[in-house]
Amino acid sequence: MTNKNNKALLKVDGLVKHFPITRGIFRREVGSINAVDGISFEIQEGETLGLVGESGCGKSTAGRVILQLIPATAGNVFFKGRDLTSLNMEELRKQRQQMQMIFQDPQDSLNPRMTVGSIISEPILEHKNFQAKERRELVEQLLISVGMNPRFTNRYPHEFSGGQRQRIGIARALALSPDFIICDEPIAALDVSIQAQVINLLEDLQEKYGLTYLFISHDLSMIRHIANRVAVMYLGRIVELASSQVLYSTPLHPYTQALLSAVPMHDPKMERKRKRTILVGDVPSPADPPSGCHFSTRCPRAEDRCFKDSPEWREVSQGHQVACHLV
Amino acid sequence: MSNQSTILQVENISTRFHTQDGLVHAVNGISFELKKGELLGVVGESGSGKSVTMMSLLKLLPMPPAEIVSGTASFEGQDLIQLDLDELRKVRGGKIGFIFQDPMTSLNPVLKIGYQLAEPLREHMGMSRKKARQRSAELLDLVGIPMAENRLNDFPHQFSGGMRQRVMIAMALACDPKVLIADEPTTALDVTIQAQIIDIVKKLRKELGMAIIWITHDLGVVAGIADRVAVMYGGYIVEEGPVEELYSNPKHPYTQGLLKTLPNLEGERAARLESIEGQPPNLHKKPTSCPFAPRCTHTMDRCRRENPVLIKRKENHKVACWWNPE
Fold it and tell me: Which residues, 6 or more positions from A13, have their beta carbon under 8 angstroms from its beta carbon?
């Protein structure tokens, strides 16, 4: 938000992740789950890119592959111009100092047997050559910056509520002063009244440290609030990408339109007036995606060619990209 | 809506849990009524007591650790709380249907859908096997499951999440309930599937005319379907009123805060979200003060001394708060 000189910090190019389905004692490959099926986008320095989609669309897998936590099947990820997919383990380990992740469930992503202090200082121990005193000071500073009491360092994760645990997770992600953070559903496990606290914290930190976020979520209202640009994913592919302003006011892809119309609004008068596009059926299995456009089986406007040809990913207006035959 | 007759009248329900860490005061003297054919939305965060309240009515909680300390729930001339298990069984799944949050864990994985659907029909309605099967197929059809007849022979794992929740609804509707209690029925589902389920419930309500209690944490879901909304916090109903009134003119600081923290899908984008500071209430503490007082921006001395009672501020609009600027 602060930096608008249009420098791509991260460039994802044709990223593919297929998980093999194996059978028999020789683990013969009989098929694959196409979790991420060729996605491309850029994230500018200092901006927040929202990645939305329903469960199983591959958005979390995309996040993991971008950080190379799991290897990509095909495609490249450039971070500051460097291709992450070509790095060896040691180079990658160094690179990861600048790229961190905040996970969905602060219950599962913090080791219950480690104190808050040791959780936050673990990345520092791993990557930096700090004295014990320096380290302790840094941990206290980090706790303060995420709005927690620095005296909590000797406590354990179970002593905290969900919102506080998520703050600990954020402090850990900040420990190495990264440039880029992937937030994977960071508020999905939190209560409504706590969600706003965490979102505000993430925005404050972005402002303060000039962070770049990839914000993965299924919550369209929250994405609208936090993201500068939004990419909508469906069954492994990005179907539409635009600035958040444009995407929410003039969505072009039938899936984006249906998704937006399905989100309940907290205003009874508006709810009564709204026209809903109710999609029929369920999301097809990523092990056996429909031929042609992945959305063709549920699309209310699908034509013959939608079932045959994959729609091209193209720019329809400045910064507004969409993959649909009918646009 | 006000001159309709009451079908369920709940008075002063209190439920607590005996745990290793001591008493948990989950529900603290809740009263509400449900009118015939009405949809009451019960909104609250986790731990606010919304599910425990409804489960207490039908004694669906394991006792111990749960203990219903006080309260009455009159339904068709009898007090549900006083019923013994045999009598309760006739009500549960019969006149009062229940839909649970997670359709995966609330269906038996080793029994065919057809069997699970027919069970209440034979139990409560005394139908023959053949007739129950026929009715089961009709029910699946009613909730929009294609090829209903064939799917009776499928097991739960052969259904998707949305389809399973439809089966749950069909099951709850099996015996023409007068009251349907839906506990976060769409929380585990994706938005597009949620929209399908809400659509079905709206349709069924028109056709069958039962009263519904819809428990949720999502203020958006309730806005679109409820007639009346009760907001819960820390084991209390803190505000209750007709849906439009409550959303356009919230009186309790918690309701006000909650509505303000939500980002919009349309209109101006707020530069910053308003947040409710602090942490959820500690339910171990004996409830002797307003549960929201530590997080409230209008706290007065009285709020820390005395627990506010739910009082009528306006026609049908009740609030439990000492702060009253009007």
Answer: A40, A75, A76, A77, A78
Cβ atoms of A123 and A174 within 8 Å: the answer is no
pLDDT digits (tens, 9 = 90+) for B171-220: 888 888 889 999 988 887 788 888 888 888 888 888 888 899 999 988 88
Which residue in the block uniquely carries the two structure tokens 């040691």?
A90
Cβ separation A197–B192 shorter than 8 A = no
Asked if residue A177 lies in contact with residue A100, where contact means CB atoms within 8 angstroms, the answer is no
In the block, tokens 């160094």 appear at: A94
What residues form DSSP beta bridges with B182?
Answer: B99, B214
Q: Which of B221, B243, B261 is facing A192, going by the closest CB pair? A: B261
Q: Is A15 within 8 Å of A73 (Cβ atoms)?
A: no
- What is the torsion angle, in degrees rounded to the nearest 10, for the CA atoms of residue A85, residue A90, residue A91 and residue A94? 120
A222–B280 C-beta distance less than 8 A:
no
Closest CA to A37 of A77, A68, A73, A70: A73
Residue B272: how many CB atoms within 10 A of its CB? 11
What ipTM, to 2 d.p.? 0.81
d(CA A35, CA B148): 31
Which one-letter amino acid corresponds to residue B175?
C
The structure's pTM equals 0.86
Chosen for mutation from A1, A59, A193, A283 (greatest number of chain B CBs closer than 10 Å) is A193
